[in-house]
């Protein structure tokens, strides 16, 4: 029986090598080096697309940062104007307090107020 099994082994050993499917041959993927080359090319393409995407995101974010900085500057200007306005409104009350306290001034009574009429015709 060993002779019979040796013959079977030798017959299968002498058979033709496995032929890759025609699609792989047409694509050039029939050999390992060409498959590796295609894998490297695909990874290079993906890497390049990721660089483009990252650059786009960086530019978009930078533009948004510039808009926010401009808005912050406008808010600083508005804050300064509001502080100026607040100090102006507070000034009237302070003047009135000093006039009352230091100069003993008071609001006149209605009977003390004299209305002066200006003639419309002037020489």
Distance between the termini: 150 Å
> What would you call the shape?
rod-shaped
Task: Name the poorly predicted regions.
Answer: none
Mean pLDDT: 82
- Please compute the radius of gyration using only Cα atoms: 48 Å
Essential attributes:
mainly alpha; single chain
Explain briefly what this protein structure is.
With 123 residues, the chain is an all-alpha fold. Helix content is 72%, strand content 0%. It has one domain (2-104).
Walk me through what this model shows:
It is a single chain. The chain is an all-alpha fold. It has one domain. Helices cover 72% and strands 0% of the residues. It starts with a helix and ends in a 21-residue tail after the last helix. The mean pLDDT is 82.
Q: What's the helix and strand layout?
A:
Blueprint: H1 2-13, H2 22-27, H3 32-102
